Structures are given as structure tokens and as C-alpha cells.
TrEMBL record, chain A:
InterPro entries: WD40/YVTN_repeat-like_dom_sf (IPR015943), WD40_repeat_dom_sf (IPR036322), WD40_rpt (IPR001680), WDR54_beta_prop (IPR049546), WDR55/POC1 (IPR050505)
Stretches assigned to coiled coil: none
Organism encoding this protein: Zoarces viviparus (Viviparous eelpout)
CC annotations in GO: centriole; ciliary basal body
Keyword line: Repeat, WD repeat
Stored PANTHER family: POC1 CENTRIOLAR PROTEIN HOMOLOG, WD REPEAT-CONTAINING PROTEIN 55
Protein name stated in the entry: WD repeat-containing protein 54 beta-propeller domain-containing protein
GO biological process: cilium assembly
Residue span, WD repeat-containing protein 54 beta-propeller domain: 1-340
Protein origin, superkingdom: Eukaryota
Lineage: Eukaryota, Metazoa, Chordata, Craniata, Vertebrata
One Pfam family named in its UniProt record: WDR54
WD repeat intervals: 256-297
Automatic annotation (TrEMBL), chain B:
PANTHER family in the cross-refs: OXIDORED-NITRO DOMAIN-CONTAINING PROTEIN (PTHR21439), PROTEIN OSCP1 (PTHR21439:SF0)
One Pfam family matching this protein: Oscp1
GO cellular component: cytoplasm; plasma membrane
InterPro entries, per the entry: OSCP1 (IPR019332)
The protein's name in its UniProt record: Organic solute carrier partner 1
Highest taxon above the source species: Eukaryota
Length: 342, 387
């Protein structure tokens, strides 16, 4: 169904982090941007569609001051809003937002971490970091925290006057991933889903004040990656399972024993309903989701497997809305592997 | 990211170090008693093990490690591990320590990479502790220290959720990133490929608590299962093995963390760097936090065993002409490390005194005891050179 294309070499290898691949397609310029996190650096590649031009850039995590050690980055993701695209980078120390080509940092939000002075008592017993990034509808960017809180930023159509407008408390454990869908003209009830380390899912409705619509409990297993499509939550877990829930009601549509190890990345091609799952077991799988309006449910069928030999995959994303091509990153690999439909 | 990595890092890396030392010491001449000069006895070997294990599992040192804190650089780790090794009458030169560190790290990286579930990091740690307990079984005082530490680890880590273990594992994997040193034993056992990467198999038992892949189940709106189907997995997985024991004693079931070094074949520990490895030459400033940690860890260890009444045993674990050169080059790096520490020390009085003391001890430690002719050291060197 897919065949391997020429890989894109990146300057550093990918770190073992959930959802460690960002993709942004810029149709008017016939370019695609890719981002891969390596420790405290984000590797950005801009690839032209004709395969002839590649340009690289590296973004560093921001250090509050010289006395502290480097801040590890947990995630880098593109946020596509109607008026503009931004690149959001979350780390142990805070949240950075850049123009989508990585050229200018437009916003920095520091996390409330106690400075580690000479007294050790200041160091929290839990790790502190931000993780989980999603653009939501018209003008919001939501970012999760290790405390379980979710920060909501209001983003103007241009400029750097980004403001923190809300803090949502729905989770008690560290946020792992977040996803949204914008329904365009249709009436949309749920437009954001957030997942945490306990496998709990929260479904939200955006607005001046975000409203918690539903809470789907987990089974003490991390949900490491989550997607929202046509009102369905697609969640990947540390047990290698994928589950499909109806967002607003929490009804379980399907459960798949998809992988033999921890799932690290899920992605959906919204126009075709193709689903991509990737795990530490070195396998990438492609599935097809179909809505069945008669029974108000969603079905999932398996289409294709791809084994990336000896690699624990940490990022997998479709490169376009139809799922014609997808890209994969793996721990310790210094390349972005690409596949295209045959 | 995770603030709970240090205890596991030191126990596992320290464990790997002891496995290698044990293998090397077993390979030497033995004599029944201490009377023959220049020959290692069983007592000598036990003493080295007891000293290092005693230092590593000392209450003060472990208490420092157990405080929640970040995992810093390889340099800090190597410095502390060298100091631990020097808690015994053994002396390792820079080149030996560098190679030893590479071996230790590659072994632990392999274990962390292949760890079936993140929580199984504990079982790997307990495998190391079990074997270490065996090394010092003749000395009840040290066995007690090991047991006490083991109990503390159980207390601190047993209640951590799986997500926290995965964060810990991810922190370790980031720390070991881009290290692809080829170890001949791993290559021989086919756990490592010639390009330095570890082999990952798409077959075998799934980890405990995970279902064998292949099943799709669909449900109706009332939660009743309405269909089951299978899909081809592209691998051949089997049902999980039983879970290992997380108590003080018991069958750990998984074998990761047990020693891979058999008998006394020194060939096993030959290493070679993969071509694309980048050298950590730039003497980057140790952040203040990191220096403070280093000072606290060194301070919490027993005073270094500076052999005054007897000659120290100097060991070159892996000696080749190339490494003598390398030793020269890395001396330079070590010098710049001292320079960096001195500059930083001026900003913080407390750290300054402790670090000055430590830096001084390092400088002394590197000097060879003059009288080597009748020591076991010379014979050891000769023996190692022949390998």
C-alpha cells in the first residue's frame, strides 16, 4: 500500500518522547516543515515538494539563567489557526512560541518552578514540565502541564500580544497529549480532548471559558497519544491498545490490541479517515475509520503494516490531509523516514 | 525531566562496573594465602569488592542520591564513579576508566532500551543488587548495607505509577542518546548490530499486562461486544511470561541486568566506536546546580582510600598503544575540567573548599606510588599488556 521514499537527514537524532514529529504543509509555497526534538534542541527541516531543496534550522530551549542546567524539551508541535501558523515548543522550564518557520520567537511563558538554590528543599519531588499542545478553533492554543492543568492562550491574528486567558483543571496527572478538531461550518460540540498519564481523557468545548463536557476514566495506563475526529476520540495507550470513544458520551466504540509495546504516536488524515499508529515495538500500522450513521458508531479496519527495523518509533504523522504520505521518526535515528502510497 | 533517576543510575552502572571488575579480577593469578607477593588472592578480590560496594551502598551516599534531582552530565557521573572505584585499593588510569565507563553505559543502555515495561527497570535494578549481594556475601556488614538500600529503593519506587517510570526511562534514553560503542560480547551474542544499534525483535512473549496484538473488538452503544476480528500483525508474538518479583528476594524472571560476562574471557569487553560518534571535547561549564550535586556526592562518600602504608594496586584494565595516546589526550580534558571547577569555585565558598579538597585528591590519586617493583601492580600491568 505504501513504499519507502528517500529519507530526510536531520542534524541530531530523535529523542524518546511521545509524538516526536511535527508536520506543517505549506501548499502555496509547495513546502513541508518537519520538526524533531533532540534533548534541548528542536531540529527543523523545510522540504520542498520536488525533493530538491532542504533547509535546516535548530531552535534551542530557553534557559532562564546561566546558573541552571539545560532544559529538556518535551514536545514541539505546529498550531494551525485560521489567521496564522505557530510553532509551539514545551520544555521543563516553559513554553516558547515561534513563527511557523522558526525565525522569530513571539512568546515565552515561564513555568512556576522554584529556583534550585543551595537548599535542596526547593526541588519538587515531582518532575515539572509542559507537554501536550493543541490549537483550538479560532484563536486558542492550549498547552498541558505536568501538574495536570491546561493553560489556554489567546492568540491575536498577528503580532506577539499573546495572553494567558484561562487555566483548566480537569486532570490530576501529567498531561501527555491533546488534540482538537475544527468542524468548520458544522455545529461542533466537542472541540478539544486532553489525555494524561493515568489514561484519563477530558473532553472540552472551547469558548471564552472552556467547558468540561465529559471525563472518560482510564485504567492507570498512560494514554500517550490522542486524536479527535468527527466527534470520536481515538486514544493510544501504554499497553499498546487503541480505543475509540464517542467524545461527548464516553461510549466505547472499539478496542484494538494494536501493538506489543507502548504506543508513542497516533495521527489521523481527516479527509480520508486513515489512522496511523506507531509504537516502541518498531511497527507503524495504518487503519481505516468509517462512520456508520445508522448505528451512530465508528468502525476500524486494519490496512497496512510497516516495520522500521530495530527502531523504537517515537513520532509518526501523515504529511497531508488524505494520508497519501506519512513520515516516521525513531529513537536514536538521525533521519525522517518517509512513505508514499504506491 | 524525571527527578528520580540517580539512585537507579548509580546502582545499575555501578553494578555493571562491578561485573566487569569481577571478571577481570577472576582472570588473575590466585594464591591460597596472601604470602606470595605480586599475586592476587581471593581475600584481595573480596576486599576490593567490599570496599567499592561499601562505598556505593553507604547510607550517606544513597541518601544524597535519593533526593529528587535532575540527571546531569556524563562528566559528573564519571567523576563520581571513578571516586567509587577508588574507594578500594585499586587504581584505574584515565584510559581504563574511560573504556570502563563506555562498557557500563552501553550495557545499561541496552537494558533500558529492551526493558519490556517501564516498571521492569526496577527488576533490572534488583538483578544488579542480587548479584552485588553475592559478591559481598562473606561480609555481613556490607550485606546489611545492600539490604538497607534495597529496602529504601523498594519503599521509594514501588508506588510510582507506570507513567512516571516511562518518564524515568525516557530521561535515561535521552541521556544515552547517540552512544553506539560496539562491544564485542554484544556483537557476538547478536544483541547489537555492526552499526552499533541494538536488535529489536518483533516476536516473542509480550510484556506482562499487555495483550497479544491482533484483535479488534467492536461494541454497541450499550457496551455489548458485537464483533471480533483479527488482523495480521507482521510479527509472531506469544502470551506473556509471569511477572517478576519486586520484593527483597525472589525470582526476577527477566534476565536483563544479570551479568553477561562469562568466565574470564577478556575478549568480551573489547570495544570500538562506531564511525559517526561525536566526541565530547568542548569543556562546557558545569552549571552551578551540577557542581553543587558533585560536591554533595563526593562529600557523602567515605574518605578515599589513599594507600600510605601499603602500595596501591594500579590496574590498566584495557591497555593498548592507542589508549596510552588517548590517555594523554584525555589528560588534557581532565586538566580543563579542573580549570573550570576552580573558576566556579570562587563564586561559592562552601563548594570551593569541598571541591578544592576533591580536586587535590584527584591530583594525588593519579600519581603512582613509587615502590611498584614488588607490588602486584607491575605483574598485573604485564599481564594486561599481554592481552
Amino acid at each position: 500500500m505504501y513504499h519507502k521514499e528517500k529519507s530526510i537527514q536531520i542534524k541530531n537524532s530523535a529523542s524518546a518522547l511521545y509524538n516526536n514529529l511535527g508536520v506543517l504543509r505549506i501548499a502555496p509555497r509547495r513546502l513541508t516543515y518537519f520538526t524533531v526534538v533532540h534533548a534541548n534542541v528542536v531540529n527543523m527541516v523545510s522540504a520542498s515538494w520536488d525533493g530538491l531543496n532542504y533547509s535546516h534550522r535548530q531552535l534551542q530551549s530557553k534557559e532562564p539563567n546561566v546558573a541552571t542546567s539545560t532544559s529538556l524539551i518535551t514536545q514541539a508541535a505546529f498550531c494551525a489557526l485560521p489567521s496564522r501558523d505557530l510553532l509551539v515548543v514545551t520544555s521543563q522550564k516553559g513554553i516558547q512560541m515561534y513563527e511557523s518557520d522558526g525565525s522569530i520567537m513571539v512568546y515565552w511563558h515561564a513555568l512556576d518552578t522554584p529556583e534550585t538554590a543551595t537548599e535542596l528543599l526547593c526541588v519538587p519531588a515531582q518532575a515539572v514540565f509542559a507537554r501536550g499542545i493543541s490549537a483550538v478553533c479560532e484563536s486558542y492554543i492550549c498547552v498541558g502541564l505536568s501538574t495536570g492543568a491546561i493553560l489556554v492562550f489567546d492568540v491575536p491574528s498577528k503580532g506577539s500580544n499573546i495572553t494567558l486567558s484561562d487555566v483548566m483543571e480537569g486532570h490530576k496527572e501529567s498531561i501527555t497529549d491533546m488534540a482538537s478538531e475544527c468542524c468548520g461550518g458544522e455545529v461542533c460540540i466537542a472541540d478539544l480532548v486532553s489525555a494524561d498519564d493515568g489514561g484519563n481523557l477530558c473532553v472540552w468545548q472551547s469558548g471564552e471559558e472552556f467547558k468540561l463536557l465529559n471525563h472518560i476514566p482510564g485504567f492507570d495506563i498512560s494514554c500517550s497519544s490522542v486524536k479527535l475526529w468527527k466527534g470520536t476520540v481515538v486514544a493510544g495507550y501504554g499497553t499498546g491498545q487503541i480505543r475509540l470513544y464517542e467524545a461527548v458520551t464516553g461510549i466505547l466504540h472499539a478496542e484494538v490490541n494494536a501493538h506489543a509495546r507502548w504506543i508513542y504516536s497516533l495521527d489521523i488524515a481527516p479527509f480520508s479517515g486513515l489512522l496511523l499508529s506507531a509504537a516502541e515495538d518498531s511497527l507503524v500500522r495504518v487503519w481505516h475509520l468509517t462512520m456508520t450513521p445508522e448505528s451512530h458508531s465508528v468502525e476500524i479496519a486494519h490496512l497496512y503494516n510497516e516495520c522500521v527495523t530495530d527502531t523504537q518509533i517515537c513520532g509518526a504523522k501523515f504529511c497531508d490531509g488524505d494520508g497519501y504520505a506519512f513520515a516516521v521518526t525513531g529513537y536514536d535515528l538521525s533521519e525522517i523516514i518517509r512513505y508514499t502510497q504506491s | 525531566m524525571s527527578v528520580r533517576t540517580l539512585p537507579l543510575v548509580f546502582i545499575n552502572l555501578g553494578g555493571e562496573m562491578l561485573y566487569i571488575l569481577d571478571q577481570r579480577l577472576q582472570a588473575l593469578n590466585t594464591s591460597e594465602d596472601n604470602s606470595e607477593k605480586g599475586v592476587w588472592s581471593e581475600n584481595d578480590r573480596r576486599r576490593v569488592m567490599n570496599d567499592i560496594v561499601g562505598a556505593m551502598f553507604s547510607k550517606d551516599f544513597m541518601d544524597e542520591l535519593l533526593k529528587p534531582q535532575q540527571l546531569y552530565s556524563h562528566r559528573t557521573l564519571k567523576t563520581v564513579l571513578t571516586r567509587l572505584a577508588h574507594a578500594s585499593i585499586m587504581r584505574l588510569n584515565q584510559a581504563s576508566m574511560d573504556k570502563l565507563y563506555e562498557l557500563m553505559v552501553m550495557a545499561f543502555k541496552y537494558q533500558v532500551f529492551l526493558c519490556p515495561r517501564p516498571k521492569d527497570l526496577l527488576l533490572i535494578t534488583y538483578n544488579h543488587i542480587d548479584t552485588i549481594r553475592g559478591f559481598v556475601r562473606h561480609t555481613p556488614v556490607v550485606v546489611n548495607q545492600v539490604d538497607e538500600t534495597h529496602r529504601k529503593i523498594i519503599e521509594v519506587y514501588s508506588s510510582l505509577p507506570e507513567g512516571e517510570f516511562q518518564l524515568l526511562r525516557q530521561t535515561l534514553l535521552i541521556f544515552f542518546q547517540d552512544m553506539h560503542v560496539r562491544v564485542s560480547l554484544f556483537l557476538k551474542n547478536k544483541v547489537q548490530n555492526p552499526n552499533g544499534r541494538f536488535a529489536l525483535s518483533a516476536s516473542g512473549p509480550v510484556p506482562h499486562g499487555i495483550d497479544v496484538p491482533g484483535l479488534i473488538r467492536m461494541f454497541d452503544r450499550k457496551g455489548r461486544e458485537v464483533s471480533r476480528s483479527e488482523f495480521p500483525t507482521g510479527g509472531s508474538y506469544t502470551s506473556p511470561i509471569r511477572e517478576g518479583c519486586f520484593e527483597l528476594h525472589g525470582d526476577r524472571v527477566i534476565r536483563l541486568g544479570m551479568t553477561m560476562y562469562t568466565g574470564n574471557n577478556p575478549e568480551e569487553t573489547h570495544t570500538s566506536k562506531a564511525s559517526s560518534v561525536k566526541k565530547d571535547d568542548a569543556p562546557n561549564l558545569l552549571a552551578k546546580e551540577e557542581l553543587n550535586l558533585l560536591a554533595r556526592l563526593m562529600g557523602s562518600m567515605k574518605a578515599e582510600n589513599t594507600p600510605e602504608t601499603e602500595t596501591g594496586f594500579r590496574i590498566n584494565l584495557f591497555t593498548t598503544d592507542q589508549e596510552e595516546e588517548y590517555a594523554g589526550a584525555s589528560e588534557g580534558a581532565a586538566q580543563s575540567l579542573f580549570r573550570v571547577i576552580n573558576i566556579q569555585a570562587m563564586q561559592d565558598e562552601q563548594a570551593a573548599t569541598q571541591l578544592a579538597r576533591i580536586a587535590g585528591q584527584f591530583a594525588e590519586g593519579d600519581k603512582l606510588p613509587e615502590d611498584l617493583s614488588s607490588s602486584k601492580g607491575d605483574d598485573l600491568l604485564a599481564m594486561m599488556d599481554d592481552l
